[in-house]
Amino acid sequence: MKPIYLDYNATTPIAPEVADAMIPYLKGFFGNPSSSHFYGRQCKEAVDKARNQVASLLNCDAEELIFTSGGSESNNYALKGYAFANQDKGKHIITSSIEHPAVTEVCKFLETEGFEVTYLPVDETGRVQLSDVKKAIRPDTILISIMYANNEVGTLQPISEISKLAQQNNIIVHTDCAQAVGKVPVNVQELGVDLLTLAGHKFYGPKGIGALYIREGIKLQKLIHGADHERNLRAGTENVLEIVGLGKAAELAMEEEDKRMRHEMNLIRILRRNLSKLSDVQFNGNNDFCLPNTLSVSFKKIPVNEILSRLKHVAASAGAACHTDCVSVSATLDAMKVPLEYAMGTIRFSVGRYTTKTEIDLASNEIIEVIKSLRRDANQKKSKLM
Q: What distances in angstroms separate CA 347 from CA 294, 309, 339, 344, one per listed residue?
């Protein structure tokens, strides 16, 4: 029996509909989209269709999208591209203390290039406070980059409010939406952002493909130089096969948005209710502003590596990095000030399109039994020492 997959925030399987859309471009349509002949036009039309599908999902103009190799490249291009192209206006950037490494590592790099970065704190639910954003703004602030949905605890950030504040101060806003797209509505007009990142493998598309929304009028310094692909913003022959897959995944996300959200919310509700039967359990995140598919759970004084090693039939992610002799708490849990005795035993469960109630019940039973077993073992060790 395969383990029950509860790690949809790490990656999603390719949807059958997406795979079916891709197959013709794996087997038959091989042309270069830049070629003007029949074979090139076939693939150019496929790329254009996919761009329109993604644009419809985000409610933007197709010309405001470029395809990338994934979320990391999109984040790199958004931050480095805007910072270097606009450093004459200022060299101060604002981000949060709970961003994905694809943002924090870029910020660290920019600091070596003479930029200053303010890392905003979050409250105990992992949410950035607008008052802190306001305090951090300086005359030389040129960019604010805040993720929409946190990948670990699922907390959603007040991006539209941050965007309004930024607009009042002539500051550009980027948001990493890799974890949000396909799980909650993502509308660039409502969010008010200028740059937005998405990654195909987070919503049933293939790995190695993503997109960056660039609001009309925003100037970026190129990262990849070469021919004038993607409106001369990102050189390299388009990855037609995966672009087609991304487009189909976007179309599915639009069609299934409400259904997916209801399905995932129901499963998480059941999982939370089941795990609440245990004592010394803490749930992390914001109850009102959160992804419908994510549950971060902390088990008091039980190292997460011990929990995961005993979960033979459940695949999930640790909220702490486990090593042979120590547990390193994640930056997100640290920023949320989750007590160490809980943070060291944190697991992220994330459900998706194919998760069933039966799987949640089976997983819950195994998780509860493993926690009880580990606590019995701990108590027995304690008794022997006494």
A: 11, 12, 14, 9
First to last CA, the chain: 41
- For the range 16-24, what are the long-range contacts, defined as Cβ-Cβ under 8 Å and sequence gap of 24 or more? 17/248, 17/252, 18/204, 18/205, 18/206, 18/245, 18/248, 18/249, 18/252, 19/245, 21/244, 21/245, 21/247, 21/248, 22/206, 22/241, 22/242, 22/244, 22/245, 22/248
Element (H, E) at 321: strand 320-322
The active-site residue out of 60, 107, 322, 326 is 322
What is the CA 239 to chain-centroid distance, rounded? Answer: 22
The answer to whether residues 316 and 348 touch, using CB atoms and an 8 Å cutoff, is: yes
- 372's CB contacts (< 8 A; 6+ apart) are 278
Active-site residue, 326 included: no
C-alpha–C-alpha distance, residues 13 and 54, integer Å: 19
Amino acid at the residue 311: L
Give tens-digit pLDDT for 200-209: 999 999 999 9
Residue 322 pLDDT: 42
